[in-house]
Amino acid sequence: MESGLRLEELGSRAEQRHIKRDPMANRFDELLDSAAGIAKGMGVTFKEMMSPTVTENYPDTPAKLQERYRGVHVLQRDANGMEKCVACFLCAAACPSNCIYIEAAENTDKQRISGGERYAKVYNIDYNRCIFCGYCVEACPTDAITHGHGFEVASFNTATLVMRKEQMLAPIPDGAHAPVVVAETAAAH
Questions:
Q1: What pLDDT digit, counting tens, does each position of 141-151 carry?
Q2: Cβ distance 70 to 132 under 8 Å?
Q3: What is the per-residue pLDDT across 7-38, written as a single tens digit (0 to 9) for each?
Q4: Which of 21, 84, 123, 161 is the most exposed place for a label (fewest CB within 10 A)?
Q5: Which CATH number fits domain 73-179: 3.40.190.10, 1.25.40.10, 3.30.70.3270, 2.30.30.40?
Q6: Torsion of CA 88, 93, 98, 100, to 10 degrees
């Protein structure tokens, strides 16, 4: 017990000496730290005040977006004009908000839509739920889905925020032909 008391006494004596010895130094250090913080903040403020103001006239001129901007999704096509999506469902599985809906169909000799065995007959993205995280883009093994630069998707009607495959498909490249789609007749069944 005595050794414990002695250690406590020694600790408190050292603290007392420190407090007695440096009361003004602590206040002076605090004052300098505070002044340095204020000066640093005011430096940033004055730097911004002196830089030129940049105003974008968005409705009149197109917005300038960064290359990495994550906008409305685009379903890409290959150089032959065929869809890259092979309906593997990896994008739908990776989506944390569960906003991608896909129905797959088989490619045939008469109806060849994509380069794989299957293609996405239905591909919908519900932008009411989409958080533009990019997981679907990273999960796609064929780079079929990418983020475009479209950002004007606001609407008063939530039904218009469900984008269909036809709305998201990239245009057919120059020199390529559209995929062959043969209309099935009732006699074929």
A1: 999 999 999 98
A2: yes
A3: 555 555 555 555 555 566 688 888 899 999 99
A4: 21
A5: 3.30.70.3270
A6: -10
120 near 73, Cβ under 8 Å?
A: no
Q: Is 145 helix (H, G, I), strand (E, B) or coil?
A: strand
Give dist(CA 36, CA 124) in Å, integer.
55
Residue type, 111: Q
Task: Choose between 2 and 159: higher pLDDT.
Answer: 159
Reduced to 3 states (helix: H, G, I; strand: E, B; else coil), residue 77 is: strand
Give DSSP secondary structure letters for 105-150.
Answer: EE--SS-B-BSSSEEEEEEEEETTT-----HHHHH-TT--EEE-S-
Q: How many CB atoms lie within 10 A of CB 14?
A: 10
b (16+ CB within 10 A) / e for 140-166: bebebbbbbeeeeeeeeeeeebebebe
- Work out the burial of residue 118: count CB atoms within 10 Å of its CB; fewer than 13 is exposed, 13-18 middle, 19 or more buried: middle
Q: According to the model, what pLDDT value does residue 84 have?
A: 95
Amino acid, res. 22? D
